[in-house]
Amino acid sequence: KQEVTQIPAALSVPEGENLVLNCSFTDSAIYNLQWFRQDPGKGLTSLLLIQSSQREQTSGRLNASLDKSSGRSTLYIAASQPGDSATYLCAVNYPGSQGNLIFGKGTKLSVKP
Amino acid sequence: NAGVTQTPKFQVLKTGQSMTLQCAQDMNHEYMSWYRQDPGMGLRLIHYSVGAGITDQGEVPNGYNVSRSTTEDFPLRLLSAAPSQTSVYFCASSYGKGREIGGYTFGSGTRLTVV
Predict the structure, then answer these.
(1) Residue B1: predicted pLDDT
(2) Cβ within 8 Å, pair A43-B106
(3) Is the pLDDT of residue A66 over 90?
(4) Which parts of chain B register pLDDT below 70?
(5) Closest partner residue to B104 among A42, A46, A98, by Cβ?
């Protein structure tokens, strides 16, 4: 059964730091992986979608990488800002899932001014 | 575009009552799904649909029904509410399906309390 793990569960950093959030999955046979952001009391916002054939995707200060063979993805946030404070979730789409995503439990990020 | 619209935003039910959570999307997405989010449990799939007239169960379907009569709408029905169904419910949609699924668009959620 595909499982997605995110470590750490929470992270606190000072403003301006570059940081990396980690996501691991147990079965490397995935179709794609998505990173989401969730603000308190809100829905999820899609940040980046990486197909299995890709190594990375970039959007502004965000860069997501994918290493299927090791079952890992990282989300790199450059020059963090207090507005980046949120919970970040990764999710995978894999064969047999019909497009349904399996989510990690997220990393709660706090960026201190 | 409105994206994915969920109503109501908040609801309190008594045990045994029934209700329908509404979800509508205006992006002509084939795929729609319902998740519940609970502390410590993460997001769990309740039901999903890969097109009008097609629905299937997810990880935690018991106590819930769905139907997909149109591409736009995917309501979730609670048959007889139980305290264990207290949760935040999210509807999501995406273009494509299966291997071709794209980025998900989520609604803002319905916070349900069953007393």
Answers:
(1) 63
(2) yes
(3) yes
(4) 1
(5) A46
